[in-house]
Structure formats: structure tokens, C-alpha cells
Amino acid sequence: MSQSPESTTIEVKGVGRTYVRGKSSVQALADVDLSIRQGEFVTLFGPSGCGKSTLLRLLAGLDQQTTGEISIFGATPKNASARKDIAWIPQSSALLPWLDIRSNAALSSVINKKADRKGTSTRRPEDATAILGEVGLADFLRSRPDELSGGMRQRASIARGFAQGAPVMLMDEPFSALDELTRDALRIRLLELWEHHKKTIVFVTHSAQEAVLLSDRVVVMSPRPGRISDVVSIDFPRPRGWELVETPEFTQKVADVKQVLWSAWKGDE
Ligand SMILES: Nc1ncnc2c1ncn2[C@@H]1O[C@H](COP(=O)(O)OP(=O)(O)OP(=O)(O)O)[C@@H](O)[C@H]1O
Ligand SMILES: [Mg+2]
């Protein structure tokens, strides 16, 4: 699918990453090409070890690719990150234990304002309290992280990510440590936030159901070395809710995405 250059937020061209330790080396990623449009919800989906986190870390500027180029709004990931164009939401909540939830969520806004004054950020932080309300934590603003459940902590962490005002959000399996019911609720909550705040989201998962529910496109990856096997468009109308999951069309799409994954594995043998 052709895209107009101005709508492209993230451009990945010929990217590879080889880890070298002593005499051995692991090629974690090879020949990755991917364009992500502004406002898109894209999921990196694949089995353990196929390079999903490696690719996400490269996008975040937390690691450097061995080959190829990545641009985010025309800048390198490191520069995009310094300009506060990127918010990183980790697998576990990583909130500061001595601060209450409101201060935790507002913290990145404070940092962002400082960057703003130094001229390194053009992004406006959003109202942390309002976003905490959107994730259902309005009554817990003064609670510290250890006074909340795991699901509440992860909601606070997501709110903190959104409060940064960064247009690009990178999320590495943010729901994997949660129980199934909490995970289900948070998936829908995330969709609501994404629709309201109009972010570009790159989301890592190894759940086909999660990938199909959330995404505009699912990037199916295969291991040894990690490559993109295929990119599957998910055209279900939005807003999406649990009614969608009950439909035969949804079940079929999940099966299709898994099929792409298994065919890539068979080809690998
Ligand atoms: N810092 C590192 N040093 C050496 N090898 C690494 C490093 N990080 C990742 N790898 C290797 O790169 C490959 C891809 O790892 P990566 O963490 O990106 O996979 P993943 O798809 O995120 O897996 P999972 O679903 O288990 O999180 C693996 O073979 C892994 O062992
Ligand atoms: Mg990973």
C-alpha cells in the first residue's frame, strides 16, 4: 500500500540487529522494512525470540541497529526521544514507589515541561489527573503504587505514558503480567484512550487475539533471524468492543493471523 510521505510517522528501512558476545553472535533482526502512518495502531506479533522487543527498543532509541535506518518524524529515534516524541510503556508498571499515583502520572509532564523550556520538546504534556480519570483511577490519586492492585498500577503506568503528550507510544507486552479479566478490560480501555488522544501506537504481543482486537495492522514476525513474515490488515470497524470478539469473522481473522505465523515457521524448517 502506498503512503504519502507526510502521513508517515515511523520509517524502518533494511534494519538488522546482531548481538555479539565474545566469539558468538546472535542475529536478532534482519531486513526489516516497515512504514507506520500517523495515528495507526500497529502490533508486532510473533513467538518468543523473534525480535519484537529488539525492534521496539530500536524504535525507542534504547538500542542501535547494526544495519539500516530508522526515522521517526524525520529524526533518529534517539533525537525523537530527546524531543519527547516517544513514550515508552514497559511490561511492568515501573512507577516510583514513594510518589502517589497523581505525582507519578504527572512526573513525565514535569520533565517534558523542562525539556520544553530548554527547547528540546515541541510537545505539550496532557492533564495527568484527567487521564487518570479516564483509566478509572479518579478515586486513587493519593494512593501510592503499593496500595494498588497490579491492574491498577498498570493503568496508572499507561496514564503516565499518555500524560507525556508524546505522539508515538511504544508498548512492550504491557498486559502480559495481568490476569485474564484485567487484561481484557485494559485492552478496551487502551482502545478508548488511543481513539481519544489520537496516538500512533506500536504494541508488542504474542497473543493473536489481542493483536487482532487492537490493531489496524498486525506485523507477523518469524525467528532466526527475526524478520517480518507478513503484514495483515485488520479492517473491523471502530470503536471495537467485546461484541466483536464474539463474531465468527473475528475468530476467522485470529485464525488467519496464526496461519501466517505457522506457515512462516514451516518455511523455516
Ligand atoms: N542484549 C542481548 N544480548 C544478546 N542477545 C540478545 C539480547 N537481546 C535479545 N537477544 C536475542 O535476540 C533475539 C530476539 O530477542 P527479543 O527479546 O527481541 O525477542 P522477543 O520477540 O521480544 O521475545 P519474547 O516474546 O520472549 O519477549 C533472541 O534470540 C535473544 O536471545
Ligand atoms: Mg520481548
UniProtKB/TrEMBL annotation:
InterPro entries: AAA+_ATPase (IPR003593), ABC_transporter-like_ATP-bd (IPR003439), ABC_transporter-like_CS (IPR017871), ABC_transporter_ATP-bind (IPR050166), P-loop_NTPase (IPR027417)
Organism per entry: Microbacterium sediminicola
Origin: domain of life: Bacteria
One family name in Pfam for this protein: ABC_tran
UniProt GO MF annotations: ATP binding
Residue intervals of the ABC transporter domain: 10-248
Keywords: ATP-binding, Nucleotide-binding, Transport
Protein known as: ABC transporter ATP-binding protein
